[in-house]
Amino acid sequence: MTSRIVAFNLNGRDVEVIVKPLTTLQAVLREQLHYTATKAGCRQGGCGTCTVLVDGEPMLSCILPVEDIAGRRVVTLEGITPAEGLHPIQQAFFDHYAIQCGYCSPGMIMVIKALLDRNPNPTREEVMDAIAGNVCRCTGYEPIIQAAQAAGRQLSAR
Amino acid sequence: MSPIEPKHHIVGQSVPRRDGIGHVTGQTVYVDDISFPDMLHLKMVRSPIHHGRIRSIDFSEAEKVPGFVRVLTHADVPKNIYTILCLIGVGPDEEPVLAVDKVLYKGEPIAAIVAETEAAATEAVSRVRLDLEELPAVFDVEEALKPDAPVLKHWGTNYFVYEGHHCRRVRLGDVEKGFAEADVIVEEVYNTSPIEHAPTETTACVAKPEPNGRYTVYTNTQALFFTLDNTALILQIPFNKLHFVGGTVGGGFGGKVDVITEPIATLAAMKTGRPVKYRYTREEEMRVSSTRSAWRMYFKDGVMKDGRIIARKVISYADSGAYNRHTPYAVTKHAANVAGPYAIPNVYIDAYCVYTNRQPASAMRGFGVTPASFAIECQMDKIAQTIGMDPWEIRFINAYRNGDIKPHQKVVEDATLIEVMQAAARLVGHPLPERLMQMNSWDREKA
């Protein structure tokens, strides 16, 4: 299995990585580049904790070969955190206690970012639909739904 | 109002989480975020069958996998026995760290393989050839107690022995006399399933040798010092050779309280002189890690037409799976609580901790009490229905008051059931008769 170089944009920065075939974006982020905000819950596309944005669309980095995103723009949770303070979605998660153990939070926040970017005022049902692929074992989801809607109101009021 | 007048400064207030900023920015460090440049990975060779004898193991093909470093078997483990129960005073210890000559459940660890990468370790595990003799297996608690069931334990039974007895027993009054005096007998059997905690973060640890001869172990255990003590006992090293570093647990719920990954990872670090990571796959978390026990509970209650329960007999069976872990302790807690928060003068409880060939059960929120509560409250509704009484009223009538004696001979000192039900009724807007709203946990009204 010959390794090859894959170039993509990570949080606004151009990066090149040397990977074997079928190396996942998750493995590249966490183990090569040490961007550990993207979590690994199942490594089989079942829990949503590893969600990142690829050209704005939420994708499961654990089953995404990094070769498939060559030349594209990847945004992780590190990429939406401002230099000072928090992104409105992060602030809403903090204010509404949408975090408990915190392990699903990075994936949840990225999924909600993708939702609010195309629909700043989602209904409760639209939020539930957006996070349907993301497993949370602590909160019971309700605070997450409330945080998503609060963040939407905050962003659209800007 | 109840005599308790709360004056709380924190309870009822929203307080910002101290770890919240780390969680929402992804900067909180979880154990799998920790890695070292020369770190090795450990994977387990696991039993593919539910019950069997190990005839031989052939590692020759596994050793040829590029990146293979070494294998660990039971012969490498200084004290090859999990010592969870000896530390809380409940014996006997019976679970090997690595299987010796038999396996009791599908997924039981037989040997550990350490390799340069996780992929190499996984590949090497797949090439280990196991020669096993399959034995009959049992998966039901009552089947396991039959005379012809395969015997799983070296002491010759499929149940935990409580101070010389076949189960945990609780006795108060004369239950048969109570049944004879009762207007109605209400019987039912309740079953609960084994439940996997399914934390979003799987069980993991990293053990790292330090230049001073100590080992730093990063782990997501829920029981840091308990795990340190167990690891030292298994490895037969002084406690001060170990430095355990805990941190944020990505969901536990009782599923990360058993000491399973740390001793073998630390042993691997000792044998290789390099940091070793051992992390469960999602499949291992679901299929191999401890679950909540499955329970079967037979209830028989003697009830008067006025709603008083005057006798309760419960025979409970907890499915401990193949090994003890924390289930014997959960059964004791279950036995102490399965009569419920109710004043019943005649109680008879037999609670069994039973071994089967399922993955080991252990702690999960409530430690044997949650299944009891499920059964008790279903039974209360059934009793209410049987005698034609409001389900709220039957609970008020039977609720224990301070000063009552619990079945295990403890005096009730902290009764709040009546006040909690009154508050719950107010919160959900369910009107209760004034008679029930006037009750409290301090005075038992005259019948």
- The helix-and-strand class of chain B reads alpha+beta
- Superfamily (CATH H level) name of the largest domain in chain A: Beta-grasp domain
- The overall pLDDT average of chain A reads 97
CATH topology of the largest domain in chain A: the name is Ubiquitin-like (UB roll)
Elements of chain A, N to C (H/E): EEHEEEHHHHH
Report the uncertain regions of chain B: none
User: What Rg of chain B is obtained from the alpha carbons, in whole angstroms?
Assistant: 26 Å
- Return the CATH class of the largest domain in chain B: Alpha Beta
What's the count of strands of chain B? 18
Task: Give the % helix of chain A.
Answer: 25-40%
Quaternary state of this entry equals heterodimer
CATH architecture of the largest domain in chain B: Alpha-Beta Complex
Quickly count the helices of chain B: 13
Please tell me the overall pLDDT of chain B: 94
Major beta sheet, strand line-up of chain B: 3-5-1-13-10-11-12
CATH superfamily of the largest domain in chain B: Aldehyde oxidase/xanthine dehydrogenase, a/b hammerhead
The number of helices of chain A is 6
Query: Per the principal axes of the C-alpha atoms, what is the gross shape of chain B?
Result: globular
Question: Any low-confidence stretches of chain A, pLDDT <50, length ≥5?
Answer: none
Rg calc of chain A: 16 Å
